[in-house]
């Protein structure tokens, strides 16, 4: 058995798309977008999003075009966007589809149903959003969506979970 310092099947940097490599160096705070209710709940880990202040505030996100979350967001018109902390790595991986979750992703933590969708009960910073009609459009390999922030809660600041260059990072400040 050989122990690799890198993933043995990763494409070498020089063969990767330079725009994706550049985007990976920007990094971003990891969020969990959830929508639906009961057995119809779905979620997706998202680190490509932007929050714009204003009255009302807005959020713009890049979502996977084949994700169940995108379908639910379009159907329900609402979602919860939760900022994830360092302790939420496994939760982020499961909702990103890179780690299995026997019994389903929604069994990992306790959930509270809000009028915008489910949110992890331990989450202290989150927002309830409503999809802007007609805002969905293809951008690169993603779908850009715009939503109005109808509710925002800012709790005690946890150490943020940041994704950069394909890995989670734990900033100290």
TrEMBL record:
InterPro entries recorded: Flavin_Rdtase-like_dom (IPR002563), Split_barrel_FMN-bd (IPR012349)
Family matches, as Pfam families: Flavin_Reduct (PF01613)
Domain Flavin reductase like: 23-170
A GO molecular-function descriptor: oxidoreductase activity, acting on the CH-NH group of donors, NAD or NADP as acceptor
Taxonomic superkingdom: Bacteria
The protein's name in its UniProt record: Flavin reductase like domain-containing protein
Lineage per the UniProt record: Bacteria, Bacillati, Actinomycetota, Actinomycetes, Micrococcales
